[in-house]
Amino acid sequence: MSIVTLVSGGLDSTLIAKLAQEEGLRQHPLFVDYGQRARDRELAACRRAMMALGLSEPTIANLPGYGALIRSGLTDATLDVVKDAFTPGRNMLFLLTAAAHAYQVGADAVSIGLLNEDVSLFPDQTKTFLREAEQLIARCMGKNIRVLAPLSAFHKSDVVALAEEKGVRNTYSCHVGGAEHCGACIACNEFKF
Prior knowledge:
By secondary structure, the chain is an alpha/beta fold. It has a single domain, classed as HUPs (Rossmann fold, 3-Layer(aba) Sandwich), CATH 3.40.50. It has helices spanning 11-22, 39-53, 65-69, 90-105, 127-141, 156-166, 186-189, and strands at 2-6, 26-33, 59-62, 109-111, 146-148. The protein has a five-stranded parallel sheet, with helices on both faces.
């Protein structure tokens, strides 16, 4: 089985790449530049992580116009990174882009690093969303491409523990994109468990 793994350089996506590697899946790492503020640091961490895992350099989906059009705290520094964090359609954009790439490279599935839905903040982080996205992707592509969320039973504390056990380190998870983690954005706050 081959898979397009959505990778951002963060802990969750690096861990799903590590787990897929352990399962012996052929991976096509995909980084989505959607115009996010943290793009440069995320991409640098992503490249380091894929190299550390012995995976290929991530393919980059250059879609920065999305963030210019769909402004949020993740894409526009004039907006609040927490209060305005919801970026409408972001996870669908990720999955549709990954599925189209999967179609092109002959992969069977796409994988996204969503956690347990009881900690989800947005409507595109639930099992229902994932199931319906998979159905929509099948209709759009004319073939079944599975949508996997291997961490969907996990909370952040579980992810941190498993990542430590698996030796996953040097990731970057901050929506602001600074040299130091801001400690206030949603990504940073997930680590305060």
